[in-house]
Amino acid sequence: xxxxxxxxxxxxxxxxxxxxxxxxxxxxxxxxxxxxxxxxxxxxxxxxxxxxxxxxxxxxxxxxxxxxxxxxxxxxxxxxxxxxxxxxxxxxxxxxxxxxxxxxxxxxxxxxxxxxxxxxxxxxxxxxxxxxxxxxxxxxxxxxxxxxxxxxxxxxxxxxxxxxxxxxxxxxxxxxxxxxxxxxxxxxxxxxxxxxxxxxxxxxxxxxxx
Length: 210
Ligand SMILES: Cc1cc2nc3c(=O)[nH]c(=O)nc-3n(C[C@H](O)[C@H](O)[C@H](O)COP(=O)(O)O)c2cc1C
Known about the structure:
By secondary structure, the chain is α+β, with helices and mostly antiparallel strands. The protein has helices spanning 3-9, 24-35, 54-63, 68-72, 98-112, 116-140, 153-160, 190-193; strands at residues 46-51, 75-81, 144-148, 168-175.
């Protein structure tokens, strides 16, 4: 599938084929694509929990206000941010050129050390990019997805036994669609979202096509 087609055809699907299962190789492929997303200083400040077990999915579904896609999808991927990734950069710098290792290590600690809010912001950025990669890769694999934040993060962390520094920031259901998504609606126009050269210069106008 072409990239533009994957972007255009990615929709939030709510009805999944309950009988379909994802293979280990397919899970690996999705996580490989997630891991190829860019992160600040290559911190890879994330952890992924791939849930296929029916009991775990049922528990997550409850924690997600009973949104049925969580029970029905073949895979529920929980993307957690790693708020301590900056404390130990030796993992992500292990293959870096020697001259960069010390410099990056110092910069990472200086930038994020003692700044919990920035570490959380960074984790949200990283998980967002990773999540989008997962959703587009899923389209390429003929699957559909639904990104979700409608869940109780405390309950999800408990079910998955996530430690405090790995808050669940995003959930993505992945599977074979049983019903297409609703018709797309409400895409804002160019002049509502795009400024040219400085904020408020609305030179581009007209509807953005879905
Ligand atoms: C961060 C985020 C959280 C979302 N949470 C939910 C959710 O909890 N439940 C749900 O059904 N859809 C959820 N969605 C899907 C949005 O409603 C959907 O992306 C939006 O309406 C646009 O539709 P589309 O994804 O089909 O283009 C979420 C999407 C994002 C990006």
